[in-house]
Amino acid sequence: MTDGEVRVQPWRAGTWTTAPAAATEDGPDLVVTAVEGSDAWRHTAYGFVHDDAHALLAPMASPGAVEVTFDVDWDGRFDQAGLVLRADEQTWLKAGVEMTDGAAHVGAVVTLGRSDWSLAPVPEWAGRRVTVRASRAGDAVTVRARVDEEPFRLVRVAAFPPEAAVRAGPYCCAPTRSGLVVRFRQWAVGPADAALH
């Protein structure tokens, strides 16, 4: 989205799927404290279902796009933040930055009944500002991400039901610890990407 196409969403435009421990506006930012043990996952490999990540969601146009910008200044195991597209408890996508194997990773989980997980290490993103973008059109969601003002990089092209009514917005969760605090800088919406490449 170019600057002229971005429409910044006020934090009050969304409703929480699961309330965080705390959420306060600090100037233009939203500072969120996650609940220990919060997560989003269905079945695959781990054998459990978690559906208590803290996602602040509003209706998303299709075709359309959503962007979330946040600071990566946390380092607990499986700490994560980014964006969620959600139709229901079995149909959703989360994408963002997660701490795993001792480093920051950019990745996505797509859940269509069961979850999958794709990720790539980005240790150089730690301590910096990240923007994650999801563009939905037809039967696909295209996820891109960038650090600071660097160019967006492609993270994932995922199948997603074209008929599903979706809500989207920022999320965070802390599967293994208390005390995760995420500073979200912006939540924006706009038109879908014109092309995949």
From TrEMBL:
Task: Quote the protein name from its UniProt record.
Answer: Regulation of enolase protein 1, concanavalin A-like superfamily
For this protein, the record's InterPro entries field holds: ConA-like_dom_sf, DUF1349
Native source organism of the sequence:
Geodermatophilus aquaeductus
Q: Give one Pfam family, short name only.
A: DUF1349
Tell me which Gene3D superfamilies the record gives: 2.60.120.200
Task: Specify the superkingdom.
Answer: Bacteria
